[in-house]
Amino acid sequence: MHISMNHREGIIIRNVSYQEGDEIRLLFYRIAISEMVVPYADPFSPYNRKQAFDVGEYGFGRCANNLILGCDCVGSIYYFDADFNDHEGKVYRIDNAICLHEEDYGILMKHTDYRNNLSYSVRSRRLVTSQIVTAANYDYRVYYYFYQDGTFEYKIKATGILSTSVLTEDETPGGLGIMVAPQVNSQYHQHFFTKRIDPMIDGLNNSVRQVDVRYLDFPTGSIKNMNGNGFTAEHTTLKDTLQGQTNSNYDTSRFWKIVNQEKFHPYSQVPVGWKISSSHLAPLYAKHNSLVAERAGFLKKTLWVTPYDENQIFAGGDYCNQFSGKETLEVWTNSKVQDIEQKDIVVWYTFGITHLPRAEDFPIMPVEYCGFTMKPCSFFLRNPALDIGPTNTSINQSVFANAEKNGTCRSK
Ligand SMILES: [Cu+2]
Predict the structure, then answer these.
(1) Residues surrounding ion ligand 1 at CB below 5 Å
(2) Domain positions in the chain
(3) pLDDT band at 408 (very low <50, low <70, confident <90, very high)
(4) Which among 164, 359, 399, 401 is placed 20 to 30 Å from 45, CA to CA?
């Protein structure tokens, strides 16, 4: 892969591929954040205008921190600096803008044979590239994780200071926030992150399949569902840009797969693919004809699939500041119905946090996590991490707390 940074999107990951023997398999052409929006819930002036666009208005690169060894990043760290231009065109440098390192992430896989109690345990090491963005009051820690089983994970860790307002002595938050200290009101709000994912799963032409889990229609007691326990997964290929606008559905455990319909897995008999899922899929609670929904119409759907267009990078429009919302992802997608099946496509995926602040978030907020994962889904022949050996103490230098003894991850 290539790692880079620009003033607006912050870290950009390009040309992600996986080498399997001599074969290099293409995965993703480009992954970056497209827009981030924080709409607040208070409908009264001046807060009705409070809706930060942290990518388009602030810039994930421009607001990047200088990362500090041992504080922001621990371990054996490689840093990248980032060079930007100021308002006069002069170059300025952010030292240590991007961090790259490996870290232990618990157990990748393990099995204990219950008959003889022999076990085999492989620890997970993940490659991390990260940055920290300070957008006024909030600090967003941004992480791209690459795991040995092929999993990609994008995680946001939000911390920093709540944006608060002062109440008079007899005023209350009125159901639109909570008091985190006497007369200090912290309003309800949401943090949305819209990722632009340009896939190339085993080639440039890809499709998106929606997966919904449903119980079988056959009634309990019928021959095809005698005890009523049956359920199945329904796969729907999204064919055009109207079908390509879709929402999460907890009732059907819905997720999406980016697939290449020209290449099938020999055992699973399904197109090779990459599954995208998140447990942080909040709907936009502002009304869909609100000011914020006009500027950020892309928040009305969890997923958008569009044909690749090199000019369509920013879901909130190229020039976001004080923008009316005329050239957003929602507007350009709805201006014309286009075919998206087995084409060079772009996937726009929104996740986020609905933040009803707690008293414990004040005066500085402990980290709140959200993000999504992409996992190979009948892409590899079998578990691609089988080539990783079992771990032992000579690798990770673990010791007993109360004795000088060595252990091994193979018991007996
Ligand atoms: Cu918040």
Answers:
(1) 355
(2) 2-204+238-396
(3) low
(4) 359
